[in-house]
Queue: 3 jobs
Job 1
Amino acid sequence: MTQRYKNDSFEILKEGNVLVIKDLSTKRIVQAPLSAGKNLPFTETSPIVSKPVFTVYLLLSFSLIVSSTALGIWGAYQVDLSQLRWHNFAILIGYASCQIAIHEAGHYAVFRMMGRSPDKVGFKLNYGVFPAFYVRMNDSHLLVRTDRYVVHSIGIVTNAIITVIAFGMLWADLLERDWLFVFSWYAIAMAYNCIPILNSDGFKSLLVLVNQREAKSFKDNSLLVRAIIIISYGAAVIYTARIIWLICDTLTEAHI
């Protein structure tokens, strides 16, 4: 059961064995033990996304992401790198920029639908390596579990829908075959955001599904969360080396 308490100074979500407390004046959000909310008149709170709708969304999100990733891998093996030119990479950059904008707009729109406002929209380097635009949604910690999953996963799901439609247009001969390279590369890149590491949307969604929350201090996290964080740093090194190799190999093979 998830419960909520709110007054002029604080908003508190009680979920499982933890309290999530937001100071309404400073906007600071912290986690605390249940004892911190002892004797407060909590009331039961319901998710904005109903259980039937969430069940359908969960199944569709998995299906779309798996389909999009499979199409990207299949398409990558169909691309003749020797036929690529500069304009192919220019189109890829333009397409990726549009997809990223749509991804973040999805987070923003659904978060507002939940009655919350993002703290910040910006750009950062995850682990000092991975460039990423982001919508900071600290208030997501105050959402019911199922609503949090929708908020964190909607960007990926939106990208996956576009990818599946794009491949469908290719197969229907509505687009030139040059687009296969563009759609495939972005689908594969998007798949990395689904992997539950590197503070990705996949990581945040996984925490929701296994009913875990990430603490600010590493030692305060569960064994599962700590393992994921450690793997993330190793994956950051491997992924960076792999991407550099892939880019160099593609540019070498392409006639540009």
Job 2
Amino acid sequence: MVRALLFTLLLAGSRLTFAQQTVSAGAPPASPTRVILWADSAAHNISPAELMRTYAPIETKVDALPPAKRKEVTDALMEHSNEKNTAVESQGSQPADGFFYNVTELFAANGRADWIIISPMGEPNRKALDELLRRLTVFYQTDRYAKPMASPYSNEYFTNFGRPREKRAVRTGDSTISTLEAAAATTRPDTVKYVYFNQLDLKNVPDVVYRFPNLEELDLSKNGLVKLPARLTADLPQLRRLSVLFNQIGNDSVFITPNKHLLALTLQGNKLTRIPTSVRNARNLESLWMGNNKLAELNVKAIKRLKHLYDLNLYNAGLTSLPKQIRKLKHVRVLDLYYNELTTLPKQIGNMRRLEQLAVAHNKLTSLPPQLARLRRLDTLYAHHNPLATLPTAFNRFKAIRLLDLSYNRLSAFPDQLVDLKTLESVDLSGNNIQVLPTSVTQLSSLKHLFLRSNPVTRDDAKIGPYAKVIDQLEAQNTAVYY
């Protein structure tokens, strides 16, 4: 579990220049952090096996820590990773012809990186590889530190630099076109409803798409588009779903004409710092995905009049705060804020009365507003991987909550508020610092799943520990307890 967590935390990059100095096997370098390829380890008189004996895997150390300390370590590694990602990104654009690579970081006990050893997948462009090594050299030679531990440790993960080429996903089926050749050749353009032009290295939207008057879905994802032309919504009157996922479209290059037919728009992974104002012209839009951009703010004004918008995805959008105006998104039912930099939520979020699912996991929230309990339709709340130490007293007022994920926070006690939630079916409190399992938890009559892994309360064999009777009673009530 910890390995998977660390993989998630460190999902972005590290690499450095080749070492020229020969060192004894397993010995830390005399100079600042050295970076080599695994393939060059023999040339540097380095034994990978001996290195791995000297630098124990971090997960073996983290698993042995108390939950609070474990959280501290993972937070420190996340901060180190974020600094590293920022350093790589701030030095210029990343290559379109990117690649995946494996990283092994070897840290001294004081948290300073001794070695960075990389292994690229496939045969990456040499220029791109050298550029990555150069950027990471800049980062590590500023004497960056990760988390100090009692002894040297290693951390290993898999990530990418730029956008790695991948095998194109070609979709087939009735009324479906997936190649430019087929689009030009068809003699029955009126029968085509689905066009999938993903991963074709397109720089512009090809004119051939306008051959299809009954087109309902257009996928232009993973190309090199820099503009979303107005003609797409003006000349395709049946277009319902449009995706330009992972392109190069900027703020002033999204043109949507007034229409009532577009229902779903995916703008994820572009170069947007705000929601394009022309989005408001899609009057019946139901789903808007803006994740994996770098939004300077959430400009609610662009979407507040969309009365049918129920699904708003802002995953990894770079948001550091939410505006009070979020209360004007009265029709949103699903709000995804995973992997942002939020430290607080505005109390006005409690005015989003139709909200049913809220995801604020992997942020920096130290508290949740009590106004969330006003959301009488909220049935799912994901708030895991935050530094939450307590919950608002008002949380006992939820009327429809079924799933609550508070794992990997800093809770030191089972929240009393949960006992009053009669609709609650699944609770995840894994990875906290919970010391006691109160008998009152058996009052949760609808509870089907209770996750308590990686807490002091379940460190020993829970079935013979002091809370065995509580667990037995829960299981007798058909509640599955995971410890």
Job 3
Amino acid sequence: MMTTKIFVCPVVIPAKSPVAFMILFALLMFLMLTDSIVSNISLESAAFTQKQDSQSLQTLTVTRNIKSDVVLPLSLTVSTKNNIVDGDSEHQNSLASSLGVREKHGIGKFRRKLPEHEIFKSDELTKKFHGRVLEFFNRGCELHFFMTWISKVGAFGRREIMAAESVFKAHPNGCLMILSRTMDSVQGYRTLKPLLDRGFKVIAVAPDFPFLVKNTPAEAWLDDMKSGKKDPGVIPLAQNLSNLMRLVALYKYGGVYLDTDFIVMRSFKGLKNTIGAQSIDV
């Protein structure tokens, strides 16, 4: 929309003065010419904007014509700010917008193939996982607990130590296993050493993820996701894998799972087959 500027100023003109009349006339012509130039620039800007919108529509049309058998890799990065391994945000945003366009127009869905991430790999350390679990929990544990940690070892801080400490205050003879590749390291041992020095039974173990899901209902589901037959959805991949890891650990070994920011106030000894609600809508 063109904005017309009105200039108001007091002008004193002597009666019947031709010179003053000519000056006033020239001033009015100058203002009219300036307004005309501004109007032309505004019209050109509007035309350019319409051209950009037209190009955007053409781009949208091309997006709609993409075939439905595309398999897109999903990259992963570690976010120490959010304490989780998350998908690349720019990649996810572009993918989400493409998915939205395709779903809006009834076009087939993208299939995302899961990357060969560290959590899927088996090595000499992870192959000892099952034996280490059985050996650790065979130490006269009153109850055995699991936590998972999929972030960098340096992100395991005072809050997480306090949560682990609360487990032992309520269960002095309990055993806590932290399923984590990053914490199963020299630096991870140093992080947990204050708890070990107090005689608490705590250990970080690199999980063998393929072994954990083997012969469980999750095995076929994970294979379908890795091959691209199933879409992982909009939830961050690492969060889904962390959720899956805690479930299959309980499925195979039993025990109690706790988040690393959960403070235990009393013993869980009397609870059987129980799920604690994190929040309730009233």
